[in-house]
Write the structure tokens for this entry.
Amino acid sequence: MQGLPSRKEIIQRVKDKGEHIAAVMPIFYPRELLRAYGFQPIEVWGPPNIIASEHQHFQSYACPIVRNATSFLLNGGLDQTDLIFVPHTCDSLQGMGAVLLDFIKPEQAVLTLYHPRSQRESDLVFLVAELKRLAEELSKLSGNQPSFDELTGAINREEMADKALKSLYDNRPQLALSDREFYQLVRSREYLPAEDFILQFEQLPKSEHQPEGVGICISGIVCEPMSLFDEINALGAHVAWDDLACGSRRLYQTDTEGDPFERMARRLLMTVPEPTKGNSITERVDYLYRQMARQNVHGVLVYDVKFCEPELFDIPHLKKGLSDQGIPLLHIEHELDGQLSEQMLTRIGAFVEMLQSEVTA
Amino acid sequence: MSLVDKAKYLINYELIGKQFLKFQGWQDHRKLKNYRPSPDSPLAPPLHSLVNAKNLLSGHYLQGRYANGVKKVAWVTSGAPTEILRTLDMLLIYPENHAAICGAKKVGHEFAQEAENAGYSKDICSYARTDIGALISGKTPVGRLPKPDLLLCCTNICQTVLYWYKQLAEYFKVPLYIIDTPFLYDEMQAHQIQYVRRQMEELIPIAEQVTGRTFSYSKFQQVTRRAKQATELWLEILNTGKHHPSPITAFDEYILMAPIVDMRGDESTVVFYQSLLDELNDRVKRGEGAVKHEKKRVLWDNLPIWFKIGNMSKMLGAKGVNVVASTYTYAWGEIAPMLDEQRPLESMSKAYLYPILNRSPGQKMAAMQRMIKEFDIDGVLLHSDRSCKPYSLGQIDQRDEITYKLGLPALLLEADHNDKRAYSEEQGQTRLEAFVEMMES
């Protein structure tokens, strides 16, 4: 997308200002806390198509995000970062965080955060304490000790950026952006400072946009390579909604009030129903169906990274629950190797054709 | 409680079942007494306690078969603080143990296939696939599993159980209570302990509501005391493996550990483990090893390969190799000193944060290093278990440290705890033989 700074440009800009860079693994983390302590988060979702490092630390059946990110680190891809932040998202990221701390011991500091899986009062109390622990660690690393106002200001900025992100989703039909451009913008939240993201949003050209083809929802962790969006368009469909970990699953709560640590904890806890947390599957199906009905979605493409247990467990119930509501689901797994195989595209093509014939009928 | 259910329970379990199991146990013990192993068998005759373990487990599952309508049933994860539910007299079923039984009976992969046919990926844990397949097909080697009234999922062994229990909650439409145990990358911290304690406290009224009973603190203390006694005995049993020759193999331990997982807190479990300890001490006195000609001593890391236990035990035994210790069986012994009946909730909050699977691979490495020294280990077998990622991720570095820093042979054996389709027999055999040769060289 034109005018959108790249990750490299942001890293350089942050470094030029003498600030710190935190490489952040998926999915949920307190951006505002990192920013308040002087770390600009740059998220690492793999990346795709990475040359495996000489020494492998994880078995071939481990999540490709973890394997790629570790190789990326060992190949020097994270040399400009000062901190590697690994939220406890799943068993694979748990393994990555622990192996980094215990065996690889990179030059950068490694910090972790445990996410409660439920949304009870006890989970909130724990997460507040966990965030305070993290704040102490960040303070030790950066030497910064933000005031109450600085912390509140950082939260407010991130909430404004999150509002802009939500507005992007809400106004999707009014935006003159292709699917690929739209998701490049959504995913720029992975590395752009909140204020830059808001600026990008405000500068967006608005015009009535008629998406072509049948509307689908894309679900999963991360959609790579981004050329998948072009292929979907070429096959006669458009992405009307997503249930992506790098997308709408991170539409955090805004307008929170009160103690800064409680605000941050609530934003992390009160997410939409998603597979890594304790929400029931029925709750998730109901939520997805409501979104899909609103966005005129005709089918779901679940595009999963290989070996992703939280995603895989839900598939049978998701398939049944949505098909009971008349929404078919296609499940495809990828290795995060930056490739779109012919077989994969053929399956997506057949799925789109089926949806088209159903819509026509 | 329906009268018909109660009558079935009384007749089939209390009257006929218990007597039948008693008789079967007597027969098995007699057979074992008269058992004359072939002179070229590499292993000592089986322990009598194996018969007792089979009997205890059979009784447990038989009770389960007729429990619905008579007793409230909870399905629980293997690391869950079950003392709370046991205090309320709930019958506890462990899907992981059930799956392991299916694996040991060599039907795990068949049930897993049923789950795959229903859309579950073969890349998810084979315990989960085995159990889900058993539910879907209605097949089980234990007769019949009772339906749960409550699901208790504790994440101290993995996050997989959370995804798995969400499936069970959908299937049975019963409440699911999650005890979330923060992973210990480092030392245990106060806020982590408080979090676990608070969740345990929250579980009590939920379980009271399900059972319709009032929680008795004094009974809770009694159950905790028995759990502590049983885990202490279990630790002593495992430590008999330090003797030369070792009176026990880890392969025996995998079978003998079922009561410490399933029936912790019961009086019968304490009695069972005391008797097992006596039997092992007797072997030690007589200088009898579980492997007749023990030459090399091995440490096993990770879950067993359930469908290969017997074969591996014989194959390694024939080469004079005894797997004398296992990080997996040790996990249930390590919590023994932490349990305290005077402060049950507080002590349990710490103990249930502490299982080896909830600690970093570096801490597991330190535990392995300690075990290597204490058990006088010659080599380490690391089962790289495709189905258990939290246990397996980190093993590559652990193997390297054992090999290069400690100078011991270490083998990363690719397999799966329950799905034989993920294990290459020929490759496994060749690698095991090479590993034994490395120890001998």
Notes: Chain A has a mean pLDDT of 96. Chain A touches chain B through 51 residues (CB under 8 Å). Residues 289 and 325 of chain A are 8 Å apart (CA to CA).
